[in-house]
From TrEMBL:
This is Nucleoside 2-deoxyribosyltransferase. InterPro entries: Nucleoside_deoxyribTrfase. It holds the Pfam family Nuc_deoxyrib_tr.
Length: 185
């Protein structure tokens, strides 16, 4: 696993990524859902390890330990600010042992924001998308810039997430390079 404070490569340098997923419905009496925490930590360390700047409520709220310290208004304002600043939204939508998508109202709101703001989305969830997912979630790739990455494939090969982010930002990175070349011409 990559360390978030140690850059393996800078291929994602200059990119702001918002990593989201369930928090409130992932907090159990014995703590945060372990498998989800491990998946989100792997996503954060993989992306951060390749130079990305990360926005993450899971980090700020310490995987639920500090969630109660924030008001709903603070969370909504913070997350909308992050969505407005990010280059790519990376939501993690886990599926429980019962085959049902874990409830995550906030992440679904963020998916709407990302789509409305034209942000590319790299969605980490089971593939094919489970039957319990809403029609809106299943239909999102038709109207938004959405790449689907199977959560189990990601766990086996974390660099797949980096590749998806690079594909999602290819046009943006080419435009930046083109403008830099024009300045030096």
């Amino acid at each position: 696993m990559f360390s978030a404070d140690k850059t393996v490569s800078g291929v994602l340098s200059g990119l702001d990524l918002f990593v989201g997923g369930p928090i409130q419905h992932a907090i159990r009496p014995d703590g945060f859902t372990v498998a989800l925490q491990e998946t989100i930590q792997l996503a954060l360390s993989t992306l951060g390890g390749h130079g990305a700047h990360l926005f993450s409520a899971h980090t700020v709220e310490e995987f639920g330990d500090r969630t109660a310290h924030y008001t709903p208004e603070q969370v909504a304002a913070r997350d909308l600010r992050w969505m407005s600043k990010c280059d790519v939204f990376v939501p993690v939508l886990p599926v429980g042992a019962d085959g049902v998508l874990m409830r995550t109202d906030g992440t679904h709101v963020e998916l709407g924001w990302a789509t409305a703001l034209g942000r590319p989305i790299v969605l980490l969830t089971r593939q094919p998308v489970v039957e319990s997912a809403s029609h809106l979630l299943k239909g999102l790739p038709v109207i938004g810039d959405v790449q689907l990455l199977d959560i189990d494939r990601f766990a086996r090969s974390p660099f797949l997430l980096v590749e998806c982010v690079l594909r999602a930002t290819q046009r943006q990175r080419e435009a930046v390079l083109s403008s830099r070349l024009a300045v030096h011409a």
